[in-house]
Amino acid sequence: MKISKEMAIVLMISLAVFIIFLALRLFAATPNQKPLFEIMMIVGALFPVMIYSLIVYGSMKSKEAAFPTLIGDIANNLQIGISLVDTIEILTKNNYKALTKDVRRMYRQITWGVTFSDAFRQLCENSHSSLIRKSGDEIISTLDSGGELSKVLAGIATSMKEYQSVMRERRGQVYEQMLTGYMVFFIFLGIIYIIVNQLLPFVKVTPLGTPSAPAEVYRQVLFHFCLIEAVCIAFVTGEMGEGSITAGFKHVLVLVTATVILFSIV
To answer: 180, 192, 265, 183: which is closest to 227 by C-alpha?
Structure first.
């Protein structure tokens, strides 16, 4: 598996964060603080990767939103008789959000002698979007087979816009479910807060009459349980709301942060 330069830098940052928290756990943390530092080692190491994944995901969604407009503009220019190369040159002056740099790069490649098929294929590959890649493959196949490119481009642009409209309606329908998931989790945290603050200090013996484990042990068990619950709810919310596990990373940041803050004050 090929790792990009940016991802390699992110992984090095994650490793550095992990080593810092490991050193703090070994040499600076008290026995009661060690479980917290163990969690921070994991969260701190994953945090840069999650942020990078969210940035890539946001760029991908921006490109998906702009792609139908791009190929629609290409189709319109071809239909009025403008050549393909001149069309791409004209489009370099337009704003296609995250695709703008890719369009300008594609035009530079064409002026250097790269075929439109190869340059357009690279634009689709760099989008990190399966939707754009599939559409790009169909466009390139049409171009290579000598078909009427403008009609195919117009048809794909229309289909993608309809698909994006359906996805927006879907997100609107599950928005209430996402809010319900958040509400349930924060109610759950409230109950855990009451248990840790009001009940654990009075747990001295088990139902069998034997001495109970220290309250800190129960506290750590509840802390780990809340973290697992936060991660699960976050990924389910991302999948439900946007159809992507990667979208769940932003929910992980919110819910895990809320959990850590709660247990740092109780």
So the answer is: 192
CB 238 within 8 A of CB 244: yes
Task: Summarize pLDDT for 145-204 with one digit per residue, the tens.
Answer: 877 888 888 888 888 888 888 877 777 777 777 888 888 899 999 998 888 888 777 665
CA distance 166 to 172: 10
How many Cα atoms are found within 13 Å in the side-chain-facing hemisphere of 244? 17
- The verdict on pTM exceeding 0.70 is yes
Which CATH entry fits the domain spanning 62-165: 3.30.160, 1.10.287, 3.40.50, 1.20.81?
Answer: 1.20.81
The position carrying tokens 């159809």 is 243
Cβ–Cβ < 8 Å for 10, 48:
yes
CB-CB neighbours of 75 under 10 Å: 20
Cα(35)–Cα(51) distance, integer angstroms: 24
- Asked if 177 and 243 touch (Cβ cutoff 8 Å), the reply is no
Q: Which residue has the tokens 């921070």?
A: 40
Using CB atoms within 10 Å of the CB of residue 263, give its burial: 0 to 12 exposed, 13 to 18 middle, 19+ buried.
buried
For residue 203, give the DSSP letter. Answer: -
25, 39 Cβ separation under 8 angstroms: no
